[in-house]
Design goal:
It comes from Anopheles gambiae. With about 325 residues, the protein is an alpha/beta fold. The protein has helices at about 1-10, 20-30, 45-50, 65-75, 115-130, 145-160, 185-195, 220-235, 235-240, 250, 255-265, 285-295, 305-315, 330; strands spanning about 60, 80-90, 100-105, 110, 135-140, 165-175, 200-205, 245-250, 270-275, 300-305. The chain has one domain (about 55-330): TIM Barrel, CATH 3.20.20. Strands 1, 2, 3, 4, 5, 6, 7, 8, 9 and 10 form a 10-stranded mixed beta sheet that branches. Helix 12 (about 285-295) links the parallel strand 9 and strand 10 (about 300-305).
Length: about 325
């Protein structure tokens, strides 16, 4: 086992190209290299990741912000539940006497379910799940720092983040393209609060402006540098939280080089993945996006996009076998 480990570490540093020889090595040592035709199993406590080495196949439910929708999602095969948290009022609080974290997307300020009840229901479901593949991951999307700070004690008391995959999502920096309309969540306050949640996965991104009429724009070097600086300035590299970067499909398709630089800067301190998302009417260069996915690797890339775009990407195991040039690790030495 030790010999295989050293061999694997050595191979990671080599600029492999896809082909019969490299595939032979990958099968022998069961590597996670992206040229391999066999998906590698991830070493993580998350049942979602354990079951899905090809992270592009993880399935999502969005805006699970009401009780009835949550019931349907829990009964489904969906693996990850994404929901929005705002400060507001329960619908049965007719006099609006108690402002609390609720499941709602701005500008909504009312909901029939609180964050506390939302988490308690998922926790009960996960604990009672007979089949580990049925366990749900949770992605909590915070649109304001106030909602996040008010939610910390609730999350700690109502959920088991050590046993079940828990993501904390917020846009903490301004991003492309010339986006000044959306105010990001304050990064220093976000990280200060997030540190109280232990090893929760931090899903941290940039505000974006994009749509059907856009074709140019990227995550720039300065925006990537600002993200790296924010992570290091707040000690997240030292505490070692897993980090997933939510990146917009139409923009990240133009940003392969800068995303590689982002990964390489943090790979030794944090488990880094990317989560591609897209709005229904976004302009997306499908071929460029496929190149990005295969460059970063199916074991490091979640794909949370509309069904029609997902189908166009043809994310089967051999989809990019002729386009693979180097492993993601090897690119860090360029």
């Amino acid at each position: 086992t030790t010999t295989a480990h050293h061999l694997f570490t050595f191979l990671l540093s080599l600029p492999f190209t896809c082909g019969s020889d490299s595939t032979f090595f990958f099968v022998i040592i069961q590597s996670e290299l992206i040229c391999s035709k066999l998906p590698a199993m991830l070493s993580t406590a998350s049942s979602v990741a354990d079951a899905k080495a090809n992270l592009t196949k993880v399935t999502w439910a969005h805006a699970v912000n009401d009780a009835e929708f949550l019931t349907r999602v829990l009964a489904s095969d969906i693996q990850f539940i994404e929901a929005d948290i705002s400060l507001g009022y329960l619908k049965d609080d007719v006099n609006k006497e108690r402002e609390i974290p609720i499941m709602a997307h701005p500008p909504a300020t009312e909901s029939d379910i609180s964050l506390e009840t939302f988490l308690q229901r998922i926790l009960q479901f996960n604990r009672e799940a007979n089949d580990p593949s049925k366990v749900k991951g949770v992605k909590l999307d915070f649109k304001s720092i106030g909602a996040f700070e008010r939610s910390i004690d609730i999350i700690r008391a109502s959920y088991d983040m050590t046993a079940f995959d828990t993501w904390i999502n917020a846009d903490i920096l301004p991003g492309p393209v010339d986006n000044t309309a959306t105010v990001p969540v304050d990064p220093t306050r976000f990280f200060t609060a997030a540190r109280r949640l232990g090893k929760a996965t931090l899903s941290i991104g940039w505000t974006t402006r994009w749509g059907p009429d856009f074709s140019e724009g990227l995550y720039t070097e300065s925006q990537v540098d600002a993200m790296i600086d924010a992570i290091r300035a707040n000690g997240i590299d030292k505490v070692g939280n897993a980090i997933t970067f939510p990146v917009r499909g139409g923009i990240v398709a133009n940003s392969v080089t800068n995303m590689i630089r982002l990964f390489c800067a943090l790979k030794d301190t944090n488990n880094v993945t990317f989560t591609i998302w897209s709005s229904a009417d976004d302009a997306v260069n499908v071929e460029k996006l496929r190149e990005f996915i295969f460059t970063t690797g199916l074991d490091r890339t979640y794909v949370d996009v509309p069904d029609d775009l997902h189908k166009k990407l043809h994310l089967d195991e051999n989809a990019f076998i002729n386009t693979c040039k180097k492993t993601l690790q090897a690119r860090c030495f360029d």
